[in-house]
UniProtKB/TrEMBL annotation:
The keyword Glycosyltransferase does not apply. It is an enzyme of class 3 (hydrolase). NCBIfam families: aa-his-dipept (TIGR01893). Residues 208-289 form the Peptidase M20 dimerisation domain. This is Cytosol non-specific dipeptidase. Transmembrane segments: none annotated. One of its GO terms (biological process) is proteolysis. Its EC number is 3.4.13.18. GO terms for cellular component: cytosol. It holds the Pfam family Peptidase_M20. Belongs to the peptidase M20C family. It comes from Polaribacter haliotis.
Length: 486
């Protein structure tokens, strides 16, 4: 499979991407990819260092005639989101990504592709390994753990970088130039419960919600895609009143920054209500599928009879939990009043676990407004605290405030129009880029973001455009040729 990828143009980028994707690189387990990058830098005889948190920095001198230009930092993150289809047998900790070509797209075999942000990393590697590209003095910054907390960017100390301009290669539309992004905060609700013996004369069922698109919880939140956790909760709502439904286990979603594609539950109902439960749930499922028919055509809900579990969730806690999930906002909270079409504030109910006396609900709240970020976080906190949960805020990171007077933005914008005969879309995005964090310790550095077109990031449907990657590479090469003088 991967040999076909190596023959794509530009070969220098795709070959580095194939090499990178052969290295397992889950967030918070980046030791192997850090060593891979260090070996790469040393092989090229580049100044290479690893900072105290694991970020890798390399430096390459300017080519002849470019020494008087401003120093450029090329930045991407090494880690990737791990998502796979439930029927895909794959171990992210030990296996390299299996890639394939599908028309004008590169995708993976049942898993995330790692183009986010692996294509950015590969492009930087291509610049560093090139012998014929014009460029100023370069610093390459490869951060770690972007996908699960941005701890690499947060841990980068001031004074390490010497660059004047930072080019972040983590935007996912090839006609966009990023000039700002949202900040975020993790909202986690937990509580313990007393397990109760499963009532006598109960019938047990497993409920599976699957087939949803999933996707990036920032960039894709505006699409109104189905959230498996919310759909499962809708199926369970009023279940006790109508059928004596009791929850034994729930396992929904996976990563905080991925819209949940699947949810699994084990429940019991009164035996006398079995047929009514199956009939009414089928009708509700049909209603939900009709609502999502256009954007979630593959949504399926399976209900299968199983052996009864020994324990179920304490009834009072169950009722409060289900109502809290119903009340908690998922999706867009507020659109930007200043930038047309931009989501300002949103929430993703990303992860729900109910098992063995413990409930955990994980949300990622995003906003380009600090005040509204905490406004929504406090709204979620209130919903869960009213149901007896303990709520914790963590992983807070700032947004990147747009600078319409950015000098490098003007250069990049003009170059795009010159190359393509049309204006780029200059915009802020609802994803969490590392620029806002990096700007805290490097407030004078001038930043923009761009990249190739990537679809379905953070899901097994992730794919990267082949022609778009060619466009992105040509754009990057031209930008490096046209960096302003000091």
């Amino acid at each position: 499979m991967n040999s076909e990828i190596r023959n794509l143009e530009p070969k220098i980028v795709w070959n580095h991407f194939a090499d990178l994707n052969a290295v397992p690189r889950p967030s918070k387990k980046e030791e192997r990819v850090i060593q891979f990058m260090v070996d790469f830098g040393k092989k090229l005889n580049l100044e290479t260092l690893v900072d105290k948190v694991g970020n890798v920095i390399m430096r390459k001198p300017a080519t002849a005639g470019m020494e008087d230009r401003q120093t450029v930092v090329l930045q991407s993150h090494l880690d990737m989101v791990h998502q796979k289809n439930s029927d895909t047998n794959f171990d992210f900790d030990t296996q390299g990504i299996k890639m394939l070509v599908d028309g004008d797209w590169v995708t993976a075999d049942g898993t995330t592709l790692g183009a986010d942000n692996g294509l950015g990393v590969a492009a930087i590697m291509a610049v560093l390994s090139s012998t014929d590209l014009e460029h100023p003095n370069l610093e390459a910054l490869f951060t770690i753990d972007e996908e699960t907390g941005m701890t690499g960017a947060m841990g980068l100390e001031g004074g390490i970088l010497k660059g004047d301009i930072l080019l972040n290669l983590d935007t996912e539309e090839d006609d966009e130039i990023g000039m700002g992004c949202a900040g975020g905060i993790d909202v986690t609700a937990t509580r313990n419960y007393a397990e109760e013996k499963t009532p006598e004369n109960s019938e047990a069922f497993s409920i599976t919600v699957k087939g949803l698109n999933g996707g990036h919880s920032g960039m894709d939140i505006i699409k109104g895609l189905g959230n498996a956790n919310k759909i499962m909760n809708r199926i369970l709502f009023d279940g006790f009143t109508n059928f004596g439904l009791r929850v034994s286990e729930i396992n929904g979603g996976s990563l905080r920054n991925a819209i949940p594609r699947e949810s699994f539950a084990i429940v019991t109902v009164d035996a006398i209500s079995k047929e009514a439960f199956l009939l009414e749930t089928k009708l509700l499922v049909n209603t939900i599928k009709e609502e999502f028919a256009t954007i979630e055509p593959n949504l399926t809900v399976e209900i299968t009879k199983i052996n009864a579990p020994e324990k179920v969730l304490e009834l009072g806690v169950q009722e409060g939990f289900i109502k809290a999930i119903y009340a908690a906002l998922n999706g867009v909270y507020r659109m930007s009043p200043d930038i047309d079409g931009l989501v300002e504030t949103s929430n993703n109910i990303a992860r729900i676990i109910v098992k063995e006396g413990s409930i955990k609900v994980g949300c990622l709240t995003r906003s380009s407004s600090e005040s509204n970020k905490f406004d929504l976080a406090n709204s979620l906190r209130s919903s869960f605290e009213l149901a007896g949960f303990e709520v914790n805020f963590s992983g807070e990171y700032p947004g990147w405030q747009p600078n319409v007077n950015s000098a490098i933005l003007k250069v990049v914008d003009n170059l795009y129009e010159k190359l393509h005969g049309e204006k780029a879309i200059v915009a802020a995005c609802h994803a969490g880029l590392e620029c806002g964090i990096l700007g805290q310790n490097y407030p004078k550095i001038d930043m923009v973001s761009f990249g190739p077109t990537i679809r379905g990031a953070h899901s097994p449907d992730e794919r990267a455009g082949i022609a778009s990657t060619q466009k992105f590479w040509k754009f990057l090469v031209e930008i490096l040729k046209n960096i302003p003088k000091k």
